[in-house]
Amino acid sequence: MKAAVVLAGCGVYDGAEIHEAVMTLYAIDRNGGTYQLFAPNVMQHHVINHITGEVMKESRNVLTEAARIARGKILALTEYRAADYDALIFPGGFGVAKNLCTYAFDGPECHVDRVIEEAIRSTHKTGKPIGALCISPVLIARVLRDVTVTIGSDTTTAADIKTLGGKHENRQHGEVVVDRKNLVVTAPCYMLGSTISEIARDADEVIRAIKELLGEK
Amino acid sequence: MKAAVVLAGCGVYDGAEIHEAVMTLYAIDRNGGTYQLFAPNVMQHHVINHITGEVMKESRNVLTEAARIARGKILALTEYRAADYDALIFPGGFGVAKNLCTYAFDGPECHVDRVIEEAIRSTHKTGKPIGALCISPVLIARVLRDVTVTIGSDTTTAADIKTLGGKHENRQHGEVVVDRKNLVVTAPCYMLGSTISEIARDADEVIRAIKELLGEK
Q1: Domain residues for B160?
Q2: How far is CA B96 from CA A7, A141, B101, in A?
Q3: Chain B partners of A57 at a C-beta cutoff of 8 Å?
Q4: What percent of chain B has a predicted confidence (pLDDT) above 70?
Q5: Rg, chain A, Cα only
Q6: How far is A200 from A194, CA to CA, in rounded Å?
Q7: Is-contact B166 B145, C-beta < 8 A?
């Protein structure tokens, strides 16, 4: 499996959730796959001080910050071609709901970054699996609408997914939802109270489910 | 095991190496331990654009940036008391050689941040194990001098460790050096060409060796 992984920055409150991002890469590697990291070349909605939770008077670029998790090996998402990869995967973090779409501010009325929407649509059209962790299933539901996903068991987010046209199924750690029609695999991760080992397990389950969809065992 | 983990920021080129940091936390958790993250409350030496490698016209705080990896749950290193923890662990990243000490600029003549030096000395004095990944063994050698460590097989760094008064032993991935006299455990990680699974393995080996030193099997 050659996976494309999309990061929303670097840090749970304004970017990609770092543990989920790293465990996604680890899961791909330990299951015999390879990965290429991507991020949109846009400015972050804001920069959050991760100790105080306050907005900082700074501006940072999503692609440049995501490169920290990627150790520099990352491409702008405009370079993504669905034909070149076997799967497209979104770790979570508030950045997904702030930088990739506006769900954190607008709820189900949210807008999606054009390049993000195109990446999801082209992957879906070419019949390749999409994986989404934590809050990312909301983004997938916003773009594909009629899709079955899990974000764990948060009732507000689950209701929003219904409003978007999707279906939500409650899940615990280690349990994924596999939408076989749409080839979408989702898992709760930090949408549930979690240890880092549970994040590793959820990411691993998503990658194994994607491998199964691809016919690799 | 209740471990204290010290981060040097957030990003391989100016802070903590993110994969090593996350895999250290994962190794502690999967081996039945708990962790508290720490970082010095000092400004980073500089901020590096992780795509271009260039210095950015910004300034960032080591503790504030490390909080991204910690999901906000982090303390200033001045709060560290060796008596409260079973082990002190340093993941790698250039931040160790730029923010915790000046090895990246001054080689064996480097200075060590006072709070970092005190944390290492107090842990050593109270007979508790210290773990160090990647480039961090240089920091330990700079403070403790007569200590046996590995940074993999890089000849320049190995020679610098000798100059500092330490002993270097070459190691491959999955192999640690355990200095039983000083209770120091070290592993190469990204000082060798590495996959993320190898980082996970090295971190796990370090934590298992520390558990063994602590008499936990």
Answers
A1: 2-213
A2: 25, 42, 6
A3: none
A4: 100
A5: 15
A6: 10
A7: yes
- Cross-chain residue pair B25–A64, CB shorter than 8 Å: no
- SS3 assignment for A70-134: CCCCEEEHHHCCHHHCCEEEECCCHHHHHHHECHHHHHHHCCECHHHHHHHHHHHHCCCCEEEEC
Count CB atoms within 10 A of the CB of residue A114.
Answer: 10
Q: How far is CA B157 from CA A109, A140, A167, A174, in A?
A: 55, 47, 56, 42
Chain B residues lying within 8 Å of A11, measured CB to CB: 10, 68
In whole angstroms, give the CA distance from residue B122 to residue A50.
Answer: 29
**Quick one: tokens of B127?**
């007979």
Token duo for residue B54: 């260039």
Is the ipTM beyond the 0.95 threshold?
yes
pLDDT in tens, B77-122: 999 999 999 999 999 999 999 999 999 999 999 999 999 999 999 9
Q: Could you tell me the CATH number of the domain that includes residue B108?
A: 3.40.50.880
Q: Return the half-sphere exposure (C-beta side, CA atoms, 13 A cut-off) of residue A189.
A: 31
B134 is catalytic: yes
Number of domains into which chain B is organized? 1
Buried b (16+ CB within 10 A) or exposed e, A48-71: bbbbeeeeeeeebbbbbbbbbbbb
H or E stretch including B6?
A: strand B2-6
